[in-house]
Amino acid sequence: MSYTSTSTTTRTHTATYLTDVVMGAIADILADLRIDLTTLYRDWDQDEHAIRAWILEGSLKEVVLECHQPGGTVAPIIEFPVAYKTSGTGDAEFTASQARLARFRAKLDRVPPGTTYRLFCTFHGPHSPQPGWSPGTRASTEGLRSINYGTLASAPDASASMRYRYR
Amino acid sequence: MRRHRDIAAAPRRSATETWQAIADLVADTLDRSPHIDRVEVEAVMATAATVGRPLVAGGHLNQHPLTLVADPMRCTIGTVSGTAALSLEENLNPIPGGAQATEFTLHLPTPDPLEAVVRAAAERSPHLSADPPADLALATRAEAGDGEVQTGLVDLAALARRKAERP
After folding, report:
1. Shortest CA distance to A143 belongs to which of A79, A61, A77?
2. CATH number of the structural domain spanning residue A56
3. What ipTM does this complex have?
4. Which residues of chain A have a CB within 8 Å of the CB of B10?
């Protein structure tokens, strides 16, 4: 009984923590690229709620940030894969690498004025419906180069990393 | 009188919940003043929430706290994220001194890369500022030997208070 309670609490904390770090990273990246943040700020509550719920149920595979340039180019694309740990094997700490994110931001390709963004989530399988989210099609990543930036945040039940796709 | 409060962020609270805890603390504090309308305070905090949540989620308030100036009271409000948030003992009681306040300003930090969006948000209310509190800015410039600060322009009382408050 006690074990179940502790496990649920930790999983909730893991979902809350990883959601915050990923959402915070997206806000910082968009601000750095001078992309209009109005929509992100307006939808923050529902996006935060959805991502948290999907991590909590273990269905979220990755959060994807696509930058849509006025000329039709979709780049860069930043992916935040979530890796789930077997219960009891995870580190008991909640840690985030803000320094890693800062180094990453410094190397981001600039984008032209008028660039917009789209957020996608991909899944391991069935997932719960969440308000404000509907099925969509990701842009192709063909021809884009890829760099893995390693773990962005780690929690007892899961971790989130960062992958950068660029031209 | 100068105070400081730390609020537990993720994994204990989401960014939205953390900002609401900060908003409640500010509103509860200023609600004690017969000169300040709680509804107005809540409206200001709701306006600031657009940038408040990203400031929390990005971990920026861990290093760069907000400053509530409501003379004679002033209070810096920061967040604690990660493992330490789970064991943080918070004081969410109204900040002493709020009852004597006749007006208030919430000074928002402008960390990289959110400076532009924070400044834009601060322009939406006369009770928000993206600049450091005046006496703190003067004291900092004077201490740094800024040539533009002339004798007689420095708030000597504020300097004395700062000196007295140092450990």
Report:
1. A77
2. 3.30.900.10
3. 0.92
4. 16-17, 19-21, 94
